[in-house]
Amino acid sequence: MAKRLVFTGDSITDCDRLWDDRPDSLGFGYVRMIAEALTRTEPETEVLNRGHNGFTAFQMKIRWEEDCISLSPDVVTILVGINDLYLHIGGAGGRGAEGYALSLEQMIKEVRERLGASLILMEPFVFPEPQAYAAWEEPLGEFRLEMKRLAEQYRTGFVPLWEIFREAGERLPLAALTTDGIHLTEKGHEIVADSWLKEYERYVRADDSPE
């Protein structure tokens, strides 16, 4: 069955989509990889990238009508949190884990109440190298816990990227996964895409299957 999928978030989702000269403007990261994979299994499915470089959950909420609701998607994916953390610990007006959760919950409610669409939340992450980011791991845990709580409360799909990248980091050098401790290499994007596709199969496509 044809679907419209909207991916939202920060630069990890954006991945230079505005500089992508192909007509679909999906960027060069995991969103494009997912779209290419779905072309083989769901050729009528439409994929839209509405990530924004530098966005926090609060900034996403402000644009939620334009970037999500007005597009009438069947499946909405959210990956956000690292900029919220950066502003919070840097004393630049970040809202902390509680404010982050409030924005997330408002977006989730909008999707459920106005669209009835499926939601997949993807856990924010950071790598322990360079050393400056090692200190971010503990405070990011508060943001991750809030996202996991909301995923459980609203019974959304959930991709535990923190855990997934911790396991990948035991098998691969971190330089194979991240360019700077936050943004991803091609291999890192492949891991996100593969993890999302598994959750999509479990959470969305399983519900579409006839009993």
Question: What can you see in these coordinates?
Answer:
The protein is of the alpha/beta class and 211 residues long. It is built from 9 helices and 5 strands, in the order βααβααβααβαβαα. It has a 5-stranded parallel sheet with strand order 2-1-3-4-5, with helices on both faces. Strand 4 (118-122), helix 7 (137-153) and strand 5 (157-159) form a beta-alpha-beta unit. Helix 2 packs across helix 9 and helix 6 (96-115) runs parallel beside helix 7 (137-153).
User: Considering DSSP H and I runs of 4 or more, what fraction of the residues is helical?
Assistant: 40-55%
Helix segment tally: 9
What is the radius of gyration?
Answer: 16 Å
**Cα-to-Cα separation, first versus last residue:** 16 Å
Q: Which spans have pLDDT < 50 for at least 5 consecutive residues? A: none
Question: Which short descriptors sum up this protein?
Answer:
single chain, 211 residues, alpha/beta, 5 strands, 9 helices, 50% helix
Describe the structure concisely for a colleague.
With 211 residues, the chain is α/β, with parallel strands linked by helices.
Layout of secondary structure:
Blueprint: E1 4-9, H1 11-14, H2 30-41, E2 46-51, H3 57-62, H4 64-67, E3 75-79, H5 82-89, H6 96-115, E4 118-122, H7 137-153, E5 157-159, H8 161-171, H9 186-208
Parallel strand pairs: 1-2, 1-3, 3-4, 4-5
Helix pairs in contact: 2-9, 6-7
